[in-house]
Amino acid sequence: xxxxxxxxxxxxxxxxxxxMNRVYANEEVCVGCRxxxxxxxxEHSASRDLIKxxxxxxxxxxxRIRVQADGDRFLALxxxxxxxxxxxxxxxxGALYRHxxxxxxxxxxDKCSGCWTCMLFCPFGAISRxxxxxxxxxxxxxxxxxxxxxxxxxxxxxxxxxNGEEL
Length: 167
Hints:
By secondary structure, the chain is of the alpha+beta class. The chain contains five helices and ten strands. The chain has helices at about 35-45, 50-55, 85-90, 115-120, 150; strands spanning about 5, 10, 20-25, 65-70, 75, 95-100, 105, 130, 135, 160. A two-stranded antiparallel sheet has the order 1-2. The protein has a two-stranded antiparallel ribbon with strand order 3-10. The chain has a two-stranded antiparallel ribbon with strand order 4-5. It starts with a strand and ends in a 5-residue tail after the last strand.
């Protein structure tokens, strides 16, 4: 088991997920521009190029974040990387797993059978079907970036990447 050390202090396993940075949405400033969806799709595309991702790549990548509208109110919805994720427990093949140090929930596409059971158990509806590939798609917090693409490109700062203590 890997140990997480913060400020010189070794944290017990139960505290690891609580310090993990997550994406939080502020619906008070979201205007529903859906740029988070666009940049997420591009980040998860093969080319990471806007035009190629939308016009040329097949199958097209999927955004792992969705903006939902209710009248003039908007909310960006993505995986919450739950402390005790029901989707991970429901996964029949073990494709969904929780990172032992960061607490982030990831999917191993090679193990995913496309049964969609995890979608039924996600209380936030944050898992999408990638029908073209026969697997699921969910937020992975853009592991190759310091800040997820959706957060970095939100013009109103409606998306925040933090551990929640600052909110």
